[in-house]
Specification:
Helix content is 37%, strand content 20%. It is built from 4 helices and 4 strands. Strands 1-2-4-3 form a 4-stranded mixed beta sheet. α3 packs antiparallel against α4. The protein is globular and about 35 Å long. The mean pLDDT is 83.
């Protein structure tokens, strides 16, 4: 991940970063996982918008395809949707999961490609 950050920041703006290796690393896990971490202290992450990072997402998956699929869904969900709003206000785990399910439903109903917003 450090090597990837040296190529360019994985901060996507609005205080959020999705640190990942340049080439996704597949781990032998039963199902892909996404972790969400709200940081106690802001980190200067070199974001294009200049904002310090307060929220990190990490992805663990067993295949590169599932890693890229999760990254796509996460990117879609963080662009002006109810999920992005829930993340911004550090909503409860229940609300975050509910809005994440909404993202999955939107992607599934579009045939696998993220579409539209909330």
């Amino acid at each position: 991940m450090l090597a990837r950050e040296s190529l360019g920041s994985t901060a996507i703006g609005d205080g959020i970063a999705i640190p990942h290796a340049r080439n996704p690393i597949a781990f032998p896990v039963g199902r892909p996982l996404v972790s969400l971490c709200f940081l106690q202290q802001l980190i200067s992450y070199g974001a294009l918008d200049g904002k310090a990072v307060h929220t990190l997402f990490t992805i663990v998956s067993s295949t590169i395809r599932s890693h890229l699929g999760l990254l796509s869904r996460l990117s879609f969900g963080l662009k002006g949707t109810s999920f992005s709003e829930a993340v911004a206000c550090r909503a409860s785990a229940e609300e975050l999961l509910q809005t994440a399910r909404w993202v999955d439903e939107q992607v599934a109903s579009s045939g696998g490609e993220p579409r539209g917003d909330s």
